[in-house]
Amino acid sequence: MSGRDGERAVLGAGDIARLTGVRRPAVSNWRRRYADFPRPVAGSSTNPRFALEDVERWCRDHGKPFEADAAERVWQRVQAGVDGVRTAEFLAHAGLALAGGAAAGSGLAGPDPGWAPLLAAVTGTAGSAETAESCPAPQLYERLCARFTAERERAGALDAGVAAAMAAIAGAGPGSTVLDPACGTGTLLHAAAACGAQPLHGQDLDPAHAVIARCRMLLAGLSCETASGDALRADGFAGRAADAVLCDPPFRDRDWGCAELAEDARWAYGQPPRGEGELAWVQHCLARVRPGGRVVVRMPAAAADRPSGRRVRAALVSAGALRMVAELPGGDAPPTAHLWVLDRPDGAERGAAAPVLTAAGVRDARELVRLWQHRDRPEAAGEGPAAAAVPVSDLLECDMDLRPAPAQEAGAETAGETYVRLRSELIAALGAVADLVPELGPAPEDGGGAAEDGTAPTVAELAAAGAVEIHQAPLGAGADRGPLAVLTHRDLRAGAAPSGRGEEVPGRVVVRPGDVVAALAGRCPARLAGGADAGAALGPRLMLLRCDAERVDPGYLAGVVSAAAAAEKRPGRRAHSGRFDPRAVRVPAVPVERQRARAAAMDRLAGTRAGLARLADLGEHLARTGGGGLADGALAPEEPT
């Protein structure tokens, strides 16, 4: 596409849905229902593309929300003006333009002349007086890179939370050098930099990726050296030893150089077979870390028990190099990747090799850090993943099967012990839930107007009366990088503590205890902020409601907003955009004393819901354990006395 074509930002149906807070079917419905909906300006009949300014104007005229900040507009121009397969190359040149670097020596060819208007748009946006506060160069470039990763990179790309856990486990910190020999666009280097590590070194097969990684660091004011090329065949950092090595190597690569590297000195733990390229990367990482230094690698789950890699795994374990194998979070799907933590032996006499820590059922990357901190006594890590320190002798007996779940079976409870424990827990949980259920009856006639009859005031009307303040994060506020804690939409949905990181931006909204935080999409319950949330910045796609507690009880408001969000999901309700506006929620006007009583009952109902969910989990586990034990003869009904 020519530079002239690239002057105009265009949107696909998915982009329009995202920027207006609706789902794709709603966009298709708009096209059918409204004769004045913008006509496509590019694309095809099956994938039409619309001019951003036309869609924005139409949304404004029809009262539809439309949120596209400076970075979004630049990205859409890039999408329109650059072939998808060359997006990384363009972003590399955009990074060099923003960071004041040069392509010479990077292995990157000069920029396409047709990209000149787009590169000027990138640098102009970062330097514009209108947008400099909300989108300075580092934040602009991070946003562009994040969109590229989300839309163009391979499925299963490394999650930022896992990257942060890997950097923490590796001990990355001020004064430590960190190497990533397969750095991609710099996710792991970025995580190490957030821990204070300096200097940083990275290498990638794709010159554009290596340049992007370096530019991200340079724009953040950090020292970073990158090289391009295959680190196994052409190591750009040969002869150097980092304090820590982080790596997310290519999976299932049989063409890693098995034959040509057959006698390589890096194979201190044995020649990796052709189908064990990941074990070649593990040994490369160990060869590039100082003695006593740490290596943290994301590995495919299959590498833990493939027969072809048994000899190398045995050597790593016997030498005391392998310290932990943990399942990585994968939602409800079976784990497809593991985290391997290794220490390079320093030559000191240590006696028998240390046990290998294994962990299954990891649901949150932060659990990995906690497990590592308690590696000598995994039982002290508290509730969470099933962890065990497995002796080397046990691993040798099971043919070096490093999969976390099988490795823990030797020390697991018997079926009888498990069933007795689960039965006791279930009976106790039943009693606890019964005690939580509040007694409720019909509301008095003077209840202040029900929400359903339309007489109760809305949150917006309460705000107009000064009883509630409404706040949202300023445009351009991010949650993926920076020194400040950010409460994110994901945290609200998961019931987790603030996990985002953001920069200081004008108009930043700081969460206080007693604030009510509601999601603008996703139908998750509102949160009454507590001490763990205090001081965090409000993230995107959230709304904060701050009550005058003498007029509106925060707990009551949180319960009413949560109920309204849940009602949107009831069967039989009209299909809608997927967007939720807390300002439109009606709040029955009752005296504040009654509000507090209702808030207490709502709190007990929330506890009841959580208790019932716990009961469902326990019941499922108990039924599965009991049924399996009866079927295989491990359990039997007690004989009547």
Automatic annotation (TrEMBL):
Keywords: Methyltransferase, Transferase
Lineage: Bacteria, Bacillati, Actinomycetota, Actinomycetes, Streptosporangiales
CDD domains the UniProt entry points to: AdoMet_MTases
Pfam families per record: N6_Mtase
GO molecular function: DNA binding; N-methyltransferase activity
Statement: the UniProt record of this protein carries the keyword tRNA-binding: no
Domain named DNA methylase adenine-specific: residues: 141-330
Xref: InterPro entries: DNA_methylase_A-5, SAM-dependent_MTases_sf, Type-I_RE_MTase_Subunit
Signal peptide start-end: none
Name of the protein described by the UniProt record: SAM-dependent methyltransferase
GO biological process terms, semicolon-separated: methylation
Coiled coil regions in record: none
Cell membrane in keyword set: no
